[in-house]
Design goal:
Blueprint lengths: L2 H19 L8 H15 L4 H21 L18 H22 L3 E3 L5 E3 L7 H28 L7 H14 L6 E3 L5 E3 L1
Parallel strand pairs: 1-3
Antiparallel strand pairs: 1-2, 3-4
Length: about 200
């Protein structure tokens, strides 16, 4: 083997070694997104305000205990990572959704609207509705879906998640919307079929 071929083999090996060290790791904070989804869905649907108050009281109690027990120069709150995702745009979207939720409930209860496996609403049935009522139902569902899509994108921005992962965020929110759907509401199963919860 001559020196030229040995040099070529060495350079090829070195190049391969360098390239194998380069990895692209796109971190997806699944637990944080799940917590954000739970908080946002519960807030939009007005779920158990007393529970939220109890959680806040418990957090305040834990904070005061941590402060009194800590002799460190590091603030007591440093140990607690904030999982709340809030920006002015997210707050505006949540307010819009909260304002619409009470209008959606009768359609959910009647089985006319369903919670899709994609985190969006679907109009299930319109039979027996006047043209005007059909238009109202479609507009409510359309407005809600626009807000939900905007919400998923804004959560990605707020959490510094690559936009290619918005589908993952949407799936996590879909699971939460379905989990909090009331008994009797239509939800979409993983196979695409619809059933009453």
């Amino acid at each position: 083997m001559n020196i030229r071929s040995m040099r070529s083999v060495f350079l090829a090996g070195l190049t391969l070694a360098l390239l194998s060290c380069i990895t692209v790791n796109i971190y997806f904070p699944e637990a944080e997104v799940k917590k954000a989804a739970e908080d946002i869905v519960n807030e939009v649907q007005g779920a158990d305000k007393q529970k939220k108050e109890e959680i806040k009281k418990d957090e305040i109690r834990k904070e005061s205990v941590a402060r009194s027990a800590s002799f460190s120069l590091v603030p007591g709150l440093y140990a607690q990572q904030a999982t709340e995702v809030s920006t002015p745009r997210i707050r505006a979207i949540k307010e819009s959704m909260k304002g619409r939720f009470d209008q959606l409930v009768p359609y959910y209860d009647a089985g006319r609207l369903g919670v899709g496996k994609d985190g969006l609403l679907a109009v299930i049935k319109e039979d027996g509705l006047s043209l005007q009522d059909k238009a109202v139902l479609r507009k409510l569902a359309g407005d809600e879906n626009k807000d939900r899509k905007d919400l998923y994108a804004e959560v990605a921005k707020a959490m510094n998640i690559d936009s290619s992962k918005i589908g993952d965020i949407q799936k996590i929110f879909a699971d939460q919307w379905i989990a909090t759907a009331h008994a009797g509401w239509m939800v979409q199963n993983a196979d695409g079929t619809w059933a009453k919860k």
